[in-house]
Amino acid sequence: MGLYDRYLLPRLLHVSMKNPEVRKQRARIVPAAAGRVLEIGIGSGLNLQHYGSNVTSVDGIDPSPALLGMAGDAAVQASFPVTLHHGSAEALPFAQGAFDTVLSTWTMCSIPDIGRALTEIRRVLKPGGALIFIEHGRAPAPAVARWQARLDPLWGRCAGGCHLNRDIAGLVEAADFRFRRLDEGYLVKGPKFLTWHFDGEAVLS
Ligand SMILES: C[S@@+](CC[C@H](N)C(=O)[O-])C[C@H]1O[C@@H](n2cnc3c(N)ncnc32)[C@H](O)[C@@H]1O
Q: Is 104 in the pocket of ligand 1 (CB under 6 A)?
């Protein structure tokens, strides 16, 4: 991993993910998490302040040591136990059925093998547990989707392997989840190639 990915990119991600538009969505979505929570791609821990009192603990996993360091600083303020793990959602170091909620915010775009990660999320969720997510991805308008496909290779190199054009709802459904709620739309302000969002709650089918 080069110096850009190791040192500069984590700072850029932290600053861009603090955007007030993004924060508004966190405040809307994160309080639905309950019980023992796993946050995949916890990044710099920007969701920690949005969890409600029905959360008993949060485990966060991320492959970036720099982002985990920032999440550690944010965890000091939390009123529930937070445990941070260095690793990938593709190989979760947890027992089957360990979590009530798995939370993913702007992370599924960046996991190299998203199918494998969703299989792992299924495995670690309790029966009746929920995957709560907000993710950007492939827009339904063909003209926007074409731009997403064109920009995807360059964007991925600059943005830590982030893909612009994943059909997040389709991927979650293909992993045998059933949607309890699913909303799609340009949920945050910004360029269309980056702002089509999938926001939902999925349970094991
Ligand atoms: C755009 S950031 C979002 C961070 C955080 N979820 C948030 O809402 O601020 C994408 C995150 O996905 C993480 N990530 C990349 N590959 C991953 C993987 N294989 N497993 C888990 N997280 C991963 C990155 O390190 C980064 O923290």
A: no
| Cα–Cα distance measured from residue 199 to residue 156, given in angstroms and rounded to the nearest whole number | 22
67 lines ligand 1 (CB under 6 A): yes
99 touches 108 (CB < 8 A): no
Ligand 1 binding pocket includes 106 (Cβ within 6 Å): yes
The tens digit of pLDDT for each residue in 55-92 reads 999 999 999 999 999 999 999 999 999 999 999 999 99
Confirm whether pTM is higher than 0.85: yes
Domain range list for the chain: 3-204
CA 160 from centroid of its chain's CA atoms? 14
According to CATH, what is the number of the domain 3-204?
3.40.50.150
| Tens digit of each residue's pLDDT (9 = 90 or more) over 27-58 | 999 999 999 999 999 999 999 999 999 999 99
21-to-28, 190, 197 alpha-carbon distances in Å: 11, 9, 13
